[in-house]
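Q: What does the assembled structure look like for these inputs?
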Amino acid sequence: MSLQQPPSKPASSPDGTHSNREHTWQVKANDRDFNNQFTKKGFLCFKRRKYADNVIKTRKYNVLTFLPFNLYEQFQRVANVYFLLMVILQGVPAISTLPWHTTMIPLLMVLATRGVKDILDDMARYRSDNEINNRPCDILHSGSFKAARWRDVHVGDVVRLRKNQLIPADMLLLSSSEPHSLCYVETADIDGETNLKYRQALSVTHEELHTEDKLAAFDGRVLCEEPNSQLHFFSGVLHWRGGQHPIDNDRILLRGFRLRNTHTCYGLVLFAGLDSKILRNCGRTVVKRTRIELLMNHVVLMILLFLLVTSLLLAVGAGLWESRFSGSLEAIVALSEGFSPAYWGFVTFWGYIIILSPAMPMALYITFEVIHLVHSRFINWDLQMHFPEKDTYASARSTSLNEQLGQIEVIFSDKTGTLTQNIMTYKKCCVAGTVYGNLPATSKKLKPVDLCWNRYADGKLQLHDELLMERLRSQEDQDLREFFRALSVCHTVMVEEKDGDLLYQAASPDEEALVTAARNLGFVFLSRTQDSVTVNELGVERHYHVLAMLDFSSQRRRMSVLVREPEGGLKLYCKGADIVIFERLAPDSPHRDATEKALDGFAEETLRTLCLACRSVEEGFYREWIDEHHHANMATQGRQQELEAAYERIENNLTLLGATAIEDRLQEGVPETIRTLKRAGIKIWVLTGDKKETAVNIGYSVKLLSSDMTILEGKDLRTLLEPMQEEKSSDSNNIPRLSKETVWTNQELRDLHKLGAQRKALVITGPDLEFILRASDSAGGAHGQQVELQKRFVELASSCPAVICCRVTPLQKARMVELVRRYQGVVTLAIGDGANDVNMIKTAHIGVGISGQEGLQAVQCSDYSIAQFRFLQRLLLVHGRWSYIRICKYLRFFLFKTLSFTFVHIWYSFFNGFTAQDVSDRASLQCPELYRVGQYQELFGYRVFSVTMLHALLTSLILFFIPFGAFLPSALDYQTFAVTVATAAVFTTTAEIALQIWTWTLPNALAILLSIVFYFTLTFMLHSFILHQTWPKDFLFPGASLSTLRDPYMWLIVLLTVTVCLLPSLTARALDTVLRPPDLHRVHSSEGQRMSVSTVELRSGFQRDQPQRRSSYAFSQERGFGERIASGTSLRKGKGSRRAGRQGLGEQQ
Amino acid sequence: MMASSYNAKEEDGQLSGAGGSGGVGAAKSKKPDNTAFKQQRLPAWQPILTAGTVLPAFFVIGLVFIPIGIGLFVTSNNIKEFEIDYTGIDPARPCYNCSQTLTWNSTKSCVCKVPFTLEQSFESEVFMYYGLSNFYQNHRRYVKSRDDSQLNGDATRLTSPSKECEPYRTSDGKPIAPCGAIANSLFNDTLTLYYINPNGTESLVPLQKKGIAWWTDKNVKFRNPGGNNLNNITAVFHGTSKPVNWQKAVYELDTDPENNGFINEDFIVWMRTAALPTFRKLYRLIEKKNNMIPTLQRGNYTLEITYNYPVRRFDGRKRMILSTISWMGGKNPFLGIAYITVGSVCFFLGVVLLIVHHKYGNRNNSAEIPN
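A:
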């Protein structure tokens, strides 16, 4: 493939599993010709360039391809093909009943309607593509940077980006304006996490590539893995000046990142456009079809089959009749033109296909779309889904999925930005056993504490506890001071001064919230150097010498700093999860119980909690410890373990200072919405890229989880799925044991089921999920056991009312949705706001985007967009339900109508020698499609379809045979007969609708009235003399209706027919009323029952201790900034750290 | 019927929670109208069906339908009808000979006389029908075999009839007028009615041949080429050929120019194809002359048939029907019986439902929640 064999020396990636990837992707900086030489096999024998350019193209058509592509798409519908066939058949004189253009016109109308809609959709896509492709960036071209657009970016280009710009393609960071070429990025669009992340350039490029000239002369070659969808891994090697420099994920800027707090940065484009990781994660756009539509297609197929069979039978009948009678009937025999009865049977077959074509609901598709459009408009117009703060309305971006909104069974929700606002607010604290920040229950409008005495206050903190303020300012309460001092000293936040204001940057939003809270209360963290922290404590500036930073890790779940106080004392401040801190407290530490109680209280309010502790360290112990620490730090093997052991030695014998409580603020109305949705029988799964603790905590605060639930976590899951694993690994000769194991598992599962629907929740993390999802990776044919495993998992998960998946990638999110779709066969909805939800939104039956946020990708890919999560309930429970009910009702009617007309034809066949006569295809044209009114609950499924079919059959029998009986011996002709039957049919269907309409509004009353008026007007028009005289051959019924409808006898026939037709449904309705309370009442009463059931206690073998859920502090899963602070790499120019740099950087590599 | 008027989606509106009414402040151009339609808050009327409203409906239907049915039945029974089959299948029947010898090609007319007796006198105006059985006048190819343009007086179509008429389009190179199978198979028996006076002499019953076709057909649908009121109708049809089975050309159907050519009423009636294979068509009217004398007295009559129309091949039957008429047309007890039946069924259902309601209906009252 490539001309030069890459020197495939694997990069030394920290993660062993990723190091052995082949590096077959070769990029040379500033050399487009070199990069363009790589080709891959494209369509047929054409070779295409291997590297995609950066142009995004989501539109489907251009001027030339529109017609063929669009027609191809449309003719995938059975009905359209059928009607095309119809047009062709009508062109055959021997068969045709109507001039071919009468069939052509409706077909063209259908195609045109759909086509126009597709054009409009495509235009919108085209515009959005253009917007993205024309975003600005600077590309290095022939020696200098020139302003360019995203579309101009190619692989191998060096690109310059400025603060707050979006990264246009996946790039290798070469250097930045910040010290050590650090580069801060916001990744919210990629993984949903909003805290700042940093990326750092290789030292070699950092040192060498400062100026434009040098960048222009840069001719490094990058060998790396092929484009893939893994957002958190990268492996590659930079070959430059004879050296080889491994590249890992920390050097890479991904498309969709936003540059923050970094003035400029330079990058080498590695993957552009479709090769970039985020687009790899996007998944394909598939045309979504609703269940109803699928069902409709099946029904159409069934009707088609039915038509074929019926036509065939009738044709056989015609053949038989022909051979028996026509030979003797001179009037007709001559018409046979010498052809055999078999021939006429054959012709009759096609004739019937035409005659029965009204049964083929083609108009259905048009009206279906019109209804959808109107429903979508209703959604757009809904004032109750208007979000005044951002002035955004709900919008139905896809117009064909409305009724599916009423069928949702599982909702997949993103967390950040969807459920939560991603704003952490300091709420409460407990110091020395006293809880501050509790609101008195009575006071509703409390004035926030005045913080104007503090010139550093940012004015955003809303604190309502005067007591805290008083005690703090009185400077007497040493506990309080120590507590806030700990907050202001023990952290890894970095500070930037800008226009006299302090800006904090933290690895986790919680940390930022805490430091900000301390700042507002007078303990202002001012600056940091590599080994010191400056704090303004209530107006007094104090410098703490930082001796050691015991950084956070997800195992330790705590962090500490060892500082020398200005007074000279040594102090260790520690903060961490409550269990971890409590384990390390000195035995005589005070306020233990009170704090624990306070923590329980916080947990009850679903606040995120954290404990703070401190200890004084004697000089002697310190010296001893620092040696050990240094030793551990220098260790070449097992450095991490040794360090942790050292940390362990000093982090004990602590004195408890207190606890903090942070609120992860939810979006408005989220818990209420979730409760409502749950009551509606909808399951809610939270899929988030965030940490487990955070996710679970949010689960509690949105009332998805409750404290009496059994939470199944990774461990339990593995226990449950273990037998599967063994089954997989062990050989087939071990069958008896295996089956036993399986039985055990089933037993377990049964136990689980006994837990009852309300009592379990499932929490699973990305890696565990990967184990389950892996099957989908292995090309298509997932082997049986893996499928079994997946099935089992989905079954288990579906039995839980709440499922939370954390640390999942966008692709995993989508796979999850797919898994549920595949094995559970339920209608799913995905809701999210960021680019990381795009794939999931595309995969689910219905994708909902939260609009009004910064990233627009989610909205652009969604089917519906709403401003707030809470609007979901209105979207689903009001619009969805109505839409569903209306559509079902409409469908049922449409089929009823068309089928009864069709059956009438069939009955008529028995009396005209099986040679169809078009009694009512005209009549069915005359039936205006206003039959879509009605708001009565009715499900549309195969059962209803067959009932409808039977009903239609019965109705048609009545429609035919009553007039038949009444006409039998009379001198009336077939035109009169046709008009009578058609009139009766119209009245029957109209009356049937009137019977079913639950609520009458003016428009639908008018619609019904109009449809009757319309029928008569049309009939009279079609039967008018003028039309007949102009086209005597096409309008054969002049005066037929006039003379028919003047006859009272006809009206009596119509009245009787209609009454008899309505009798079954009237009786059913009456029985319903007499025997059952109406639906509305049923809903109310069943709700009451459900609530009482859920209180029954069911405990089984899976009972466990109440899980500890207090320590829900959102530590960053990655390591904090601690190491960087200690090494000084992250500090700004001019602020401390003269010794900073090289050594730290060297250590990094 | 009980009904409640209410603001349709009131309770649903409550669902949307706190922010629902928030849109008031930000009145921007983007904002949708707060109209009842767009917000789906149209005033609605919701019929609430209860046993109290549904059950009476059944009784009402029953009570309305049974009288109608009885009325129809009585009316139908009062209609006097006489029907006689003159096909002559049975060798004993007068027309047997005619029926045996006749084919379409016969040039000589065969005349037979069928005597019959009216047991009752027919007081009012009498309609005289001919009836055919087993004649599939509704056969698809048959029905299509006509040229409505030609029948409507289109001069160009007169000389070149539509292809639909094949194989009855041309004959001997000349266009057929009227073309097509329907016209070709025109019923051409001539029926004459004689009353046999008590003294044994026959007196002709005057039969009126105009007024038997639909007004629209006679005046709109069918027109002679060059206008209806033409005296030299023969010239108009010059250059056309008569249908193969006809004995006379179309312009020889009658001497009355008002009833000749395409607007001959016998022809028009025939061209209005029947809906069913067994049908009757109006042939003549017998008007009431004198209020004192019934239109047709009871007694003996002779039907004289000029037997031209062969039906034996397709096993058909020919009938002559005499019938008085009422507002509901001819004699047909079906509708009356049907009405009575349906009315009774409704009544019966009402009773059953009432019983069901009383037996099982009460237990649900507790579950009902006031709306």
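The two ends of chain A are 32 Å apart (CA to CA).
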